[in-house]
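Q: I have 568 residues here and want to know how they pack in 3D. Can you give me a structure?
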Amino acid sequence: MRFVFLSLLCSFAVAQILPVDPNTTPDVSCELMTNLSFCYGVGYNKSSFPNFRMQTTQVDANTELKQFVILVNSGCSNAIVHYLCSVYAPYCEPKYLKIPPCANLCVYVRDSCAPKLQQFGVAWPPQLACENWPAYGSVCFGPSTSGLANITIPRNPLFNLPNTTSEPVTATGVRPTSSPSAVNSSNVCPSDMTIQKKNQYSEYTFGGVSGCAVPCSGNSYYFSAAGTDSSAPAFVLVFAITCLLFTFFTVATYLIDRRRFHYPERPIIFLSGCYLFISIAYIVGAVSKLTHGSFACDSADAFKSGATVGPNNEAAVFQRQPSTSADVYKQASCIILFLLVYYPHMAAAVWWVMLTLTWFLAAFLKWGEEAVERFWVLYHIVAWSVPAIQVVIVLALRLVDGDQLAGLCYVGNQNVVALATLVFLPLLVYLVVGVVFWIIGFVALINIREHLSRDPPKARKLCRLVMRIGVYAACYTLPNAVLLLLLVYEIVQRRKWESAVIQKQDAPLPNFPAFLLKYLMIFTVGIGSTSWIMTQKTFAAWHKFFASCVCRRKVENDYEPSKSQTAV
């Protein structure tokens, strides 16, 4: 103990070299207290540097503050942490920048802690002298003298004291732009986000705080607009149904007239089929969320092994792939919906590459239809196996998580690294490779059209083909490009959103329409795939199909009476 206080004495001796002048205000600005673990929970989360010790970085200030931990743990004063932090990490307001501690706060701490130091031959350091600070009532940090007894040492892992809740300490003579009482800079999980069952869910984290998760009804944590729990799945449901109808029409057209679709255009059908399954998964997730509960969340039964948060034991959004100890129904539903969305989504992106590759072979390398179609097995192997490998990686790393807006499971909703590496990066690579093939093939088709200018019928036919290819490429690339931009927006901002939620900061939260736009772009690709088949041949094929059904039924009806007459 004596050795520790002697080390404090050494630090005080070094500190005397640096002057303290609260009236001087160097070129400072408010900054978030991200590297000041000693000051977590003091009631504010913004400081300014250089501080009153003329230290220029939070790391330097925090290092010196940690030398006072033994003094804090001695319990000499309930306000010592607030006083020390007001010196080493002064409360900052944009108008006043760094605000010094009030003299009465200093006197209160000094009168309690100076005797403790004197027991070990250590005097109260001059640079912490109370004469350095303005009186209460001027622009300073601290409560009135009567309110000093209400301060308690903040909850902080550095201090070996019982966890207590401190009354917020404010700066006098200042109108704060954001009330310190509304700030939770202790990086402690809010009570309504705290995991109640620590078992396998202790690994859940939110905003860097372990044992913390978003409740299933927690869209308000991200979005300030009311009604997001119902408006988001309703929006998804409408466009998922629309996408389902369009993609079903595309696939059905192929089934009734299969001989019409050859390579290089056949991959469009498989791409539409992928979005057909994506639409079904989103419909199931949205309907479930709107009716009886979201598949993105664990069981809310407090007596089962589900992950519950808050005092009301709300269901928690899955942050990791559901384990075997989770609710079996929830676990199976989450995994199945993930497979129905992620695998077709990646497979559709690979089929885009196969489509543009076959266009490249036909237009640029002048391969005939039979030559292109000869490798159809290879196209299928690549298009279905590469996404399967991605699925195996996601499942092996247990990165399946919940999407509380759409009510299903995907990857990257809770893990920004997984979103960047397993969603954004593959989609970007597939899109860029496909665009390169498409541009080369498109330029080759235009060159061929110039050579056919002497044959007007063939030139017009090729011109229509070029227009169709251009329209379809736009229907695919533009929505995917917007989707990638939205993913970048989410990847860059996600950690800031989570920190703002944890620390109760008045920081920008995600744009709710941007998230809805992300879902819309997914469905737009599926809807746009129908543009390729919207020709007279399609309507003729359906007319022929319905006519054949009517004729077949008429023949059967005519056959049944004659059969009965023969029996008689």
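Q: Anything worth noting?
A: The two ends are 116 Å apart (CA to CA). The mean pLDDT is 79.
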